[in-house]
């Protein structure tokens, strides 16, 4: 998941039991129109499951890619995620209210 913040973009992922042999993660980014992914994590991320891309520009669309490190091998950990330019600071989730219930907004 990638969410824009007032200063940069916040990336978060799950660390699963199946990842117990993973020694860390690297984060890659490309800008719109570029297929070249550039590693933006300075060193492998090994103690948390998030990363803040402080150099992101909210007027630019980015594609992020997370790679896991197992031994000396680096493999893709998740599908690439596209964050459009001018993204909102939140994600709207439409409510599906069951019949007979109502949603109150105050």
- Portion of residues in helices? under 10%
Distance between the termini: 29 Å
Number of strands: 8
Average pLDDT for all residues: 88
* Succession of helices and strands: EEEEEEEE
User: Strand content of the residues, in percent?
Assistant: 35-45%
Shape: globular
Please mark out the parts with pLDDT under 50 across 5 or more consecutive residues, or reply none.
none
> Rg, please?
17 Å
**Biggest sheet descriptor:** 5 strands, antiparallel
Summed up, the helix count is 0
Please identify the structural class as seen in this structure: mainly beta
Topology, element by element:
Elements: E1 2-4, E2 9-12, E3 22-31, E4 38-39, E5 50-53, E6 62-70, E7 73-76, E8 81-83
Antiparallel strand pairs: 1-2, 2-5, 3-4, 3-6, 6-7, 6-8
